[in-house]
Every structure is written in structure tokens, then in C-alpha cells.
Amino acid sequence: MVQKEVGDRLAARGASGGGGKDYGPLGIIVQAVCDVKEVCTLSPSCFWPRPSIHSSVILLTRKAVPVTDNLPKFQELVHTLFGKRRKQLGSILGRDQALPEGVSYEMRPETLSLEQLAALCSLMS
Asked: Which of these, 83, 75, 74, lies nearest to 110 by C-alpha position?
């Protein structure tokens, strides 16, 4: 059980999933190794004393095969990119970096899917 806002960050998806501002390093790194499912949301009235926040019950199930085989390198890339999430990839990585299919220098980190981030990580030396 976590604060609702943390649960939203854990479960947020990339551009195709409409993750928006909740899509960031926490959720991406967790989703690289686990499937994330929000089981339920609990209102403050479920607790005594009553907190001022809603809570979420989150189910994390370890993936049989993680999205990346080099998690430390993946974490470093994600933190580098999302440290400048509103900049274009070309500005962050340089325009001489090889990019995977479907990814361009004009894209921003917050528009990349988990799979695109993993493919980018595998191409980086």
C-alpha cells in the first residue's frame, strides 16, 4: 500500500499510455523488471486516524524476462534523460548517437515508451 500519487507514478505509461507528468524514472525502472497493477484505491475514511490522502494497493509481479539485461546502465540512462525531460534527445545525447527505429533526435524523453528506452540503452556504448 502506497500513497495514491506514488501508485500513479509506478503505473504510469509512456506517450501511448498517456502517462503525462506521472511518467518518470520511478515507474520506468520498476516497470523494467516488474508488471505493475493497481489493485484498488482506498479513501481516507478507511483509516483511523483519518489521513489527508488516498492510498493505493499496488501489485508488483517480477517479469520472467526483464526489459533490459543491464539494469544499472538502464537506470543511468533514464535518470540522465529525465533530468532534462523537456529537452530533445538530440540536445541531451548529442546528434551523433545511433538511435533505434522509431526514435528521432526531436523526441523528448517523456514521449518514449519503456521498450524504446530499453532499445536506446542497448545501442549506447
From this structure: 83
The structural domains of the chain, with segments of one domain joined by +, span 2-123
Residue type at position 114: L
Mean of pLDDT values over 82-90: 93
Q: Which is nearest to 93 in space by CA: 67, 71, 115, 125?
A: 125
- Could you give phi then psi for residue 102, rounded to 5 degrees? 90, 0
Q: What is the pTM of this model?
A: 0.89
DSSP string, 38-73: EEEEE-GGGSSSPPSS-EEEEEEEE-SS-S-S-HHH
Angle at 39 between CA 38 and CA 41, to 5 degrees: 85
Cβ–Cβ < 8 Å for 108, 24: no
User: For position 16, what pLDDT does the model report?
Assistant: 56
The C-alpha cell of 71 is what?
539494469
